Amino acid sequence: MRSDKSITNDLIMGKKNEQKFLKYLNEADEYEDKQFKVYKNQFSTFDFVNNDTIAELKSRRVRCQKFHDTMVGYNKLKVCNPKHINHIKDKKYVFYFLFRDGLFKWDYCDKFSVRWYFHKDKQKWEEYGYIPIADLELVCPSLTSL
Known about the structure:
This protein is an alpha+beta fold. Helices cover 21% and strands 34% of the residues.
């Protein structure tokens, strides 16, 4: 199990990356008239929302090509499915990944696999979705994780 200090450092890194990312997102041409806001509840399933998009940011301490896929809690992917009870219709679901070598984007689709992963910090098995790196789109090489 990781130390409390290590977990705290990850949380601090995540918050700093979220601030950088939100600034970038709200200045991007793609969302020019649709400013994103942080979800008010820190325990919400997703990080950001605007009029037509729900977005999640995952920060990584590695370069994009380090692994063949990148993982996301399966609970997040399930909500994206239109058949899920908490799915918000008329919203697009987008996942962003901030790697050491840039910001990458993945629009939700059913092209991912689900596997069990032992979460050492929580000391329990959880389902995760694994998204192929080949399906990520580089959107900003200059915006990188801390």
